[in-house]
Write a structure and sequence with these properties.
This is NCS2 family nucleobase:cation symporter-2. It is a single chain. The chain is built from 19 helices and six strands. The protein is mostly helical and about 500 residues long.
Length: about 500
């Protein structure tokens, strides 16, 4: 296949199709693996611990999740007909279902978990055509809100990593841990400023390497257990026995599937916005089918529900490397790590404070991308400000108060414990209510929020292009039909004093 340059890829309208070559692809792919490694191994550690399995069996679960994560990432980014969004989107074990699977494992063990994932993912696969037709209901006011909350919801993860990740450790939250995270953050920022593109784009990877070396010098990195255990191991199909199928478990996991589909849709739209490529309903449908197909196959190799990883969306934004083949290379690396536990143990030896320092930039970049998208939204004479306010507010609830839904039925917690799904559902519903089902009449101010956002640029004032029916001049000032003053701003958006018939004061 002919190698496509960045200019050719951009000209085709698909910047993600750029091919960087094997060397660069795998180098940048390592960054993606390092970014999501902690997230992909955490669910099997939690679920395996709840199941009471041995340390060796937990190791098998971890290796299996790496293995299936690699397969899912390759399917999503490289794609085959009808499966895969062909976007730079990394897949891995979803956090959305951890609480549900922990509850299931207490009653039916791991076989019940695997059975519920298989059945619910198949049901999810059947309903993906419905989700793929919802693209028109994800305008910038919705996508910008969700992207912002994705970034904000990941901040507690970065903070936890920076403190050391283990709350029971006496070093948790120590000055040395946070100092190491701060130094890693400083290295990221310094390397990002370097004029050499190869260095600035690899700033995350290089900062993690330098931070790990620094941690080793300070005695905060331990590689002594790297050679403990097998060097090569292939995940054994149904290593924990044949799956069992319980109706209640399947129903509860299907709720998780709905949340996962919502989050993956949001992530596809987010990465499409960052890359600058069109993401239509066909592409979303292919991406969701890949999500559900890999989730259905995952339990065969002792894995769990798969979904897109939001933190890797931030990596695409901060590095500017938009090639989907870089993510495919990352999938190959995950696949190898799943078969070579010794390499996984090397990556696992990277101190969490180092990952936390780099994570602050990554996750912050996601939020910044969302804010950039929200800047494109028109807030004049509509309810878009209310949509953003209510959606961000609801999305922040489980982040600010993780126990907020503990007294509600389990299905409520399953849906709303994720700030991402909370914000996405609220934004979609309010967008339907305010912008589709009951649109405001042209020229009207439907709420105090819409009125509060109305300003007139001084340059527009001269042409009276922003005045509305009922606006009038009282004592040299513009007021609306209800007698409320209309603010006039300069070209930079700053309010200026004025009187009609003269230049604004100071101009």
């Amino acid at each position: 296949m002919v190698k496509r340059t960045r200019a050719e890829a951009a000209a085709s309208g698909r910047p993600e199709d750029e091919r960087l070559g094997i060397g660069k692809s795998f180098t940048y792919g390592v960054q993606h693996v390092l970014t999501m490694y902690g997230g992909i191994i955490a669910p099997p550690l939690i679920i395996g611990g709840a199941a009471g399995v041995s340390t060796a069996e937990i190791g098998l679960l971890v290796a299996s999740c790496l293995f299936i994560g690699g397969l899912a990432t390759i399917l999503q980014s490289f794609g085959i007909p009808f499966f895969g969004s062909r976007l730079p989107l990394v897949q891995g074990t979803s956090f959305a279902g951890v609480a549900t699977m922990t509850a299931i494992v207490a009653d039916g063990g791991l076989p019940a978990v695997f059975g519920s994932v298989i059945a619910s993912a198949v049901l999810g696969l059947l309903i993906t055509p419905v989700f793929s037709r919802l693209v028109k209901y994800f305008p910038p006011v919705v996508t910008g809100t969700v992207i912002t909350v994705i970034g904000l919801s990941l901040m507690p993860v970065a903070a936890q990593w920076a403190m050391g990740n283990n709350a029971k450790s006496p070093e948790f939250g120590s000055v040395s841990n946070i100092g190491l995270a701060a130094m890693t953050l400083a290295i990221v920022l310094l390397l990002s400023k370097v004029a050499v593109p190869a260095i600035s784009r690899l700033s995350i990877l290089l900062s993690i390497v330098v931070g790990t070396v620094l941690a080793a010098v300070l005695g905060k990195a331990d590689f002594s257990q790297v050679w403990d255990g097998p060097i090569f191991a292939v995940p054994t199909p149904f290593g924990f026995g044949a799956p069992t199928f319980d109706v209640a478990a399947i129903v509860s996991m299907f709720i998780v599937v709905l949340v996962t589909l919502t989050e993956t849709t949001a992530d596809m739209l987010a990465v499409g916005e960052i890359v600058g490529t069109k993401v239509g309903k066909r592409r979303i449908g292919d991406g969701l089918r890949a999500d559900m197909a890999s989730s259905a196959v995952a339990p065969v190799f002792n894995g769990f529900m798969q979904s897109a990883f939001a933190q890797n969306v931030g990596l695409v934004a901060i590095t500017g490397v938009r090639s989907r083949f870089v993510v495919t290379a990352g999938g190959v690396i995950l696949l190898v790590l799943g078969m070579l536990p010794v390499l996984g143990r090397v990556v696992a030896a990277i101190p969490y404070p180092v990952l936390g320092g780099a994570g602050l930039v990554l996750f912050g970049t996601v939020a910044a991308s969302g804010i950039k998208t929200l800047s494109k939204v028109d807030y004049n004479g509509n309810m878009n400000l209310v949509i953003v306010a209510a959606s961000v507010g609801l999305g922040m609830v489980p982040i600010a108060a993780p126990e907020f839904y503990h007294h509600f039925p389990a299905w409520v917690g399953t849906i709303f414990h994720s700030g991402i799904s909370s914000a996405a559902l609220m934004a979609v519903v309010l967008n339907l209510l305010f912008n589709h089902l009951k649109p405001a009449k042209a020229g009207s101010d439907p709420s105090v929020f819409a009125t509060a956002t109305r300003v007139i640029d001084y340059s527009d004032l001269r042409a009276f292009s922003r005045l509305k029916d009922g606006d009038r001049i009282v004592d040299g000032k513009i007021v609306d039909a209800e007698g409320k003053p209309v603010q006039v701003c300069d070209e930079e958006g700053k309010p200026v004093p004025y009187r009609i018939g003269s230049e604004p004061e100071g101009h």
